[in-house]
Write a structure and sequence with these properties.
Blueprint: E1 25-32, E2 39-46, E3 53-60, E4 74-80, E5 86-95, E6 98-101, E7 104-107, E8 116-122, E9 126-131, E10 134-140, H1 143-147, E11 154-161, H2 165-168, E12 178-190, E13 201-207, E14 217-219, E15 229-231, E16 236-239, E17 242-249, E18 274-276, E19 280-283, E20 288-291, E21 294-296, E22 308-310
Parallel strand pairs: 1-15
Antiparallel strand pairs: 1-11, 1-14, 1-17, 2-8, 2-12, 3-4, 3-11, 4-5, 5-6, 5-7, 8-9, 9-10, 12-13, 12-17, 16-17, 18-22, 19-20, 20-21
Length: 318
């Protein structure tokens, strides 16, 4: 994704959107307050369909747009709205004036009709992408993988309109408003051998979007070259346990409709899962949970009564 940011939330000196003529459309960008190096990112979301649009999750070195001696570092998951059946993985390195990209397209049916889990693993040795638990791409010890070792990156989700028709198709405003629905996201830090069953990723947090966590997330209010929208904070809405990114006309910001439920979360995703009973004790004051005598920090993830989810690859509480 060619993203020449005009504004970055982490800058001490930012250029306000009022410096530029307001655009006719508003999108949304949800960005992390922290930057990390390495980890696994899992996002359960329902993306949009509509020529000219992009629904995404990506990691991004916040000073990439500066140019000069600052490198460009970015890892992408991008669902291209021109089709209901393709999404793109990508790594962008190099710098502002000379980017190196490695786009690959992945085909799956009806992306906009159902919720799917998109996952990204970033380590010093490889970067891998997953779709509904199945690995679809792995880049190992390439120059781009090595280059990504140099900087921490924030993690972001956005919804916008590109002016590059040959990439995403020509935009038709008649589709507006459209919405990207995020059921949950989790981040597991890279900790070789210290994850469940000796794995390399250790769950740090999971956000079920029961409320907006302003210490974890910010709402973008910027734009960038090639983008037909201004990002508007009003176009990020948390409702009914979902985070909603809105793509609207400038006069239609926000979301007032009904959220499509992710009915498959507890069925298809866990159909081959093993379970065991547990004893549960809750410390209300500290909002902590003790499970079989061990402290559990991700209390919001305990959704299945009297059950603990045990995955064959890694252990998550759901």
């Amino acid at each position: 994704m060619i993203r020449q940011l005009l504004i970055a939330a982490t800058l001490l000196t930012a250029i306000p959107l009022t410096t530029f003529a307001a655009k006719n459309y508003n999108g949304a960008e949800l960005y992390s307050s922290e930057s990390v190096k390495y980890g696994r990112f899992d996002i359960r979301m329902k993306t949009i369909a509509g020529s000219g649009t992009v629904s995404s999750f990506f990691t991004y070195y916040n000073d990439s747009y500066v140019g000069g001696s600052e490198p460009w570092r970015e890892i992408d998951i991008e669902v291209l709205g021109k089709s209901t059946s393709i999404w793109q993985s990508n790594i962008i390195t190099g710098n502002l004036n000379s980017k190196v990209t490695s786009e690959k397209v992945h085909s799956y049916s009806n992306l906009n009709q159902e919720y799917h889990t998109y996952s990204l693993e970033w380590t010093p040795d490889y970067i891998a992408w997953f779709f509904d638990g199945k690995e679809v791409r792995r880049d190992t010890k390439t120059q781009q993988v090595t280059d990504c070792q140099s900087k921490t990156q924030s993690y972001r989700m956005n919804l916008w309109i590109s002016d590059v028709a040959e990439w995403v198709g020509s935009f038709n405003e008649g589709i507006l408003p459209v919405y990207q629905f995020i059921n949950w996201m989790s981040y597991s830090e890279y900790s070789p051998g210290n994850g469940p069953n000796g794995s390399n990723f250790k769950l740090k947090w999971k956000d079920d979007f029961d409320s907006f966590n302003s210490s974890r997330w910010g709402k973008g209010d910027w734009t960038f070259d090639g983008n037909l929208v201004d990002f508007a904070p009003e176009n990020i809405v948390v409702k009914d346990g979902y985070c909603i990114l809105c793509l609207t006309k400038s006069s239609q910001k926000g979301f007032n409709g009904s959220v499509p439920k992710d009915n498959a979360t507890e069925t298809k995703k866990f159909e081959n899962t093993k379970y065991r009973d547990y004893s549960l004790f809750r410390d209300v004051k500290n909002d902590a949970i003790q499970l079989n005598g061990k402290m559990v920090t991700n209390s919001a993830a305990l959704k299945m009564q009297n059950r603990l989810l045990v995955s064959e690859r890694t252990t998550h509480l759901q």
